[in-house]
Amino acid sequence: MLIGVIADDFTGASDIANTLAKGVQPEGGLRTAQYPGVPTDPADASIEAGVVSLKSRSAPVQEAVRDSLDALAWLRAQGCKQIIFKYCSTFDSTPAGNIGPVADALAEALEATGVVVCPAFPTTGRTVYQGHLFVGDTLLSESGMQHHPLTPMTDSDLRRFLRLQTTAGVGHIPLSIVSQGVEPARDAINGATDRYVVADAVSDADLLTLGAALSDAKLITGGSGIALGLPRNLIAGRKPDARVAHAVHVSGPEAILAGSCSGATRGQVDLHAQAHPTLAIDVPGVMEGRVTVETLVAFYDSNQGRAPLAYSSGSPDQVLALQSRYGREAVAEKLDNLFADTAKALVSKGYRRIVVAGGETSGAVAQAVTEVLGAAAMTVGAEIDPGVPILTLGDGPSVALALKSGNFGAPDFFAKALRMMEGQS
To answer: What region, left, alpha or beta, does residue 130 occupy, with left being phi > 0 and alpha being psi -120 to 50 degrees?
Structure first.
């Protein structure tokens, strides 16, 4: 294994796994596998990039650090010389959050300095300029992320925000240096006196420059975009046709589960509801035991073949009201358990295509499915929309998963994902 990734949630893991597997044409990418949690057995020898999926984004700091160091130990045992700590392209965290502590632990273990911090993903509108993170043409702190129920981002200045989470120095590599090319960028990284350097990037060309400049970096942190140029450093001279995405042809009963409250997901739910059956999950009913796994399974069973969708998405005001009534952690735990147990029941009944929206929901569902199937790794297949591939797992009849970050995907993402799982366009 050449590159190891420690991802702080499951949708982010599939996002960067997709980036590493796809690479940049004509070179292509790396043979990539995604692992649900830290594996206990060695990786297949053919795997060149391994992505360990954790649920550490909103976990207690000590737990997030412990799990990340366990992932690091396993990846290094597989031979990885370069480690990426992958977090969301909207830097999802809090002033007391986990990005700084996890990065500190990894940097100390690897004795790394000049560690690049770059969540940019221009394909989906995330760019970094003058150290500030933008969503489209809007500062992160004004993009709607300030209302996120778990990780409200109220400051777009990545240097200032990261300094709240670490005592290490945080510097900056401006676009004026990155745009000069690989050698100036590499000199700036290697010459950094701070442990961290926030790197500007407003285009894929900037990410490719940074990727080349980071060819020898022990540790890199960022969104999936920072991995865009890394396969090029490792596959020079190889045949491009060796990097064709794994074809997916999975048929069978289908289910869509949406736990994200992002504006993008709510819009996707509304569009899907115009032509497909949907079930709005009554959260008070869940909290009070009136809405159960059996409720959701009955809905899916009665709507097989019609792309049924159950969702708990709500507006920021609705979410805040529920959290105030029942407690934020209690609501999150109840919904995660409901989605996970529903996924277990569905896979046990023979459901083979499952689409999930939301980072926490995706983690819960993916762990549940892998537990039922006893699968150790997920194979990265075709890209549905930027940042969201099809994942397949299990021996015999495979199960296809799509794990979508809340803000990702085209308006018709849900129906498109199910079609592509069957090999349709």
So the answer is: left
List the one residue out of 162, 201, 204 whose CA is nearest residue 185.
Answer: 201
CA-derived radius of gyration, the chain: 20
Distance, CA of 296 to CA of 256 (rounded, Å)? 11
> What is the spatial distance between Cα 208 and Cα 348, in angstroms, rounded to a whole number?
43
* pTM attached to this predicted model: 0.87
Give dist(CA 106, CA 347) in Å, integer: 36
Query: What are the structure tokens assigned to 365, written together?
Result: 């569902």
383: closest CA among 338, 425, 347? 425
Closest CA relative to residue 338, chosen from 392, 378, 299, 383: 299
Helices (H), 179-315: 182-190, 204-213, 263-273, 283-287, 293-302
Tracing tokens 């596959």 back to the chain, one arrives at 235
Burial class (CB in 10 A: 0-12, 13-18, 19+), 111: exposed
- Give Cα 132 to chain centroid, integer Å: 21
Per-residue pLDDT of the chain (425 residues; tens, 9 = 90+): 999 999 999 989 999 999 999 888 788 899 999 999 999 999 999 999 999 999 999 899 999 999 999 999 999 999 999 999 999 988 988 888 999 999 999 999 999 999 999 999 999 899 999 999 999 999 988 888 787 777 778 889 999 999 999 999 999 999 999 999 999 999 999 999 999 999 999 999 999 999 999 999 999 999 999 999 999 999 865 554 444 456 678 999 999 999 988 888 999 999 999 999 999 999 999 999 999 999 999 999 999 999 999 999 777 788 888 888 999 889 889 999 999 999 999 999 999 999 999 888 998 999 999 999 987 789 898 899 988 999 999 877 799 999 998 888 999 999 999 999 999 87
How many Cβ atoms sit within 10 Å of the Cβ of residue 77? 13
What number of H helices and E strands is found in the chain? 14, 18
- In angstroms, the CA 92 to CA 209 distance is 25
Residue type, 54: L
CA contacts within 13 A on the Cβ side of 138: 11
Tokens of 230: 């890394």
CA atoms within 13 A on the CB side of 140: 26
What is the biggest distance separating any 2 CA atoms in the chain, rounded to whole angstroms? Answer: 62
Q: Strand, helix or coil at 270?
A: helix
CA dist 134 and 121 (Å) reads: 10
